[in-house]
Design brief:
By secondary structure, this protein is an all-alpha fold. It has 4 helices and 2 strands. A two-stranded antiparallel sheet has the order 1-2. Strand 1 and strand 2 form a beta hairpin. The model has no long low-confidence stretch (mean pLDDT 86).
Length: 138
Amino acid sequence: MKSNWHLLVFAWLMAAAATASALFIGEVMGMAPCVLCWYQRIFMFPLAVVLGMACYSDDRRGAIYGLVLALGGVMVAGYHTLLIAGFVSKAWIPCGSGVSCTEQKLEILNGLQIPWLSLTAFLAITLLLFVYIKRTSK
């Protein structure tokens, strides 16, 4: 195994924890996700699988594919965070009927909202994968 393999493992563990947390919130706690939360899940769920396979095979290409997914997640989670913070016009809300994208009801650790945590996870995974790819380049 390469000496930088631990960076890939940390990124996978973070993606797996975020996936498990999203499943717990939705399936166990019974909270329905908004449209933007679904889009974030679309990026996070396969990220956990891709990075898991990359860790198992110690394959740099899996990290590159994972980086693309993580960057997509950063964009969606960043937009969702800006929307909740009020920096994006309410006219640009993609949520029609159903759960509101701007009125989050679940806060963790004294006020941390789920989109903020999602953005943090995507940014950390992006950073870890970027460093891994940089250090393992030929």
